[in-house]
Amino acid sequence: MSASGLRPGFVAPELSAEFPGLRLLWVHAGTRGGSSPPAVRRRLRSLSDRWRGGGVVSMRVKPVPHAFRAFFRQIGLDPDVQRIPSERAGVSRLLHGEFRSVDLISDACLIALIETGVPVWALDADAVDATGLGIRTATVHDAVSASGSDPGPPAGSLVVADGSRAHAVLFADPPAGRGAGPRAGRVVLFALGVDGVPDIHMEEALWIATDLLQAPR
Amino acid sequence: MDRHRPLAGSPLRGGEGSRQAPGHLGAARPDASAPALENAKVPLAMGATAHPGREQGGSRVPLTDVLGRPSGREARAGEAAARRTLRAQIGRLERELADAFVTAYPLGGLPQPAQPWGAAQPRLLDLGELERVRDELTERLREARVTITRRADEQAQKRLALELMLLNPAEHRFERISCRELGDPGCGVWQVRPRLGLIGMLMGWWQVKLSSGCPLSRGRGRLPVARPGEAFVPTPP
Question: What ipTM was predicted for this assembly?
Answer without folding.
Answer: 0.88
